[in-house]
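Suppose you are handed a protein chain with no further information: no name, no annotation, nothing but its sequence. What can you learn? This example shows the usual starting point.
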Amino acid sequence: MVSKEAACEEIMKVIQPGDVINQIGHPRWYEFWLKITYGAIRWHQKRLFGKDSNYYDTHSMLYIDRAHTFSVELPKAVIKPLEDYCLSDMSIYRLRSKNLTPDDIDRMFLTCLKMCGTNYDVGQLLDIAINSILGYVGGLRRLKIFDFGEKKKVCSVGVRVAFEKLNQQLNPQADKKWLFQKLHRDLWLIKKIKSIIDIDNYKGTDVEATSPAHFANTDLFDYEFELVAKFKDGVRVG
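A reasonable first move is to predict its three-dimensional structure. Written in C-alpha cells, the prediction is:
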C-alpha cells in the first residue's frame, strides 16, 4: 500500500474544489453492524437504479480543498482533510452543468460550516439542513428512504444541500430544485430498469431522498455529474 502522502499527491492531480466523493465501505470482519447498514443502503439503491447500476457506494462527501472535505458522520457533520480518507475505496464525481468558481466554492463551504461542529441527532441535522438553510416551507417531510430508520441517509443529503443552496443564491428567482429533477426516460427504458421510481409520473427527487447512488448514476437523470477518477488504497483504478 502506498503512503498517505503519495496517495494525496495522486488524488490532487485530478480532484477539484466542489467535486463529490463517493466511498464504498468495506467493514472489518467483526463490524457486523456496518455490514447490515451498507447492505441495506445497497439494497435500496439497487431497487432505485437497477441491478446493473452503480449502487455499491455507501457514503458521499464534498471536497473543498486538501484540508477541507465536508462529511456528515454520526454524531455530527465534520470537516476533515484528504489524508483521513485518501486510502479508501473512492470515486470522484464532478458537476457538468456549471464550472464552479472560487466564489461558488466559498458559498458552498459556508453552507457546509452551518451544518458542522455541534452534536445533533439525525432528525435535528436534517431539519437544519433542509428547513433552516434551504428555507423550504411546511417543514421536513420525513422519509424512511432506506427502510431501516433515519441514521444512514444523511451523508448524501448534506452534500446536496450545499449544491441546492448555491443554486438558490445564484438564481434567487428560481422556483425549483437544481439536481435530479429530470429523468432520462429513454435510457431507463433502454436499460430495462425495474425500479420503485415511477418514471411516467416522476416529479423530481426530494432533497431528503438523495442517496450516494444519485451522484453515481446521473446519466439516468440529466447527466448532472461525470465520473472523474476512481482510487483504491491510494492507487488510481479508473
